[in-house]
Amino acid sequence: MGDLLGTSPDLNGNFTFSRLNPVVGLTYKILPGMTFYTGYSEANRAPTPLELGCANPAKPCLPEGSLVSDPPLQQVVARTREAGLRGNVKVDSGALDWKLGLFRTDSQNDIIQVSSIIQGRGVFQNVPGTRRRGLEVGAQYQTAPWLFYVNYALVDAHRGSK
User: Fold this and answer.
1) What is the domain partition of the chain in residue ranges?
2) Beta-carbon neighbour count of residue 57 at 10 Å?
3) Residue 85 has pLDDT above 70, yes or no
């Protein structure tokens, strides 16, 4: 980030984030038309310029309208585990595909917005961890020329490790 006008040189900063994100998965055919799957993946994201520019509790800002000098934030790293069943069945002249799965994502250094003691202002900060876990259910039926589908996800989200 750089102050091109020269009025706030404390905004200048050079941030570098790098990470190798592994992904591994396994699928096992239980029955014809039904498989078990499981997987593990990692992902990361770097803080946005707005998050980096509004992270100092001593200099809270209106996040929607200004950037001020701040300490650097850490990149967010998410680790996801999932497992479930998938299947397909011929129904009349069409095909029914379905999925039932469980997942859990633990994020390290997640970035959240925190209110300041100055009304209407806030800062972004890293928190040690957040967790999202849940259930995904989906089905789709396809027959020429139609495709019908339904998907549902139930997500339980927590700050901290619960």
Assistant:
1) 9-159
2) 13
3) yes
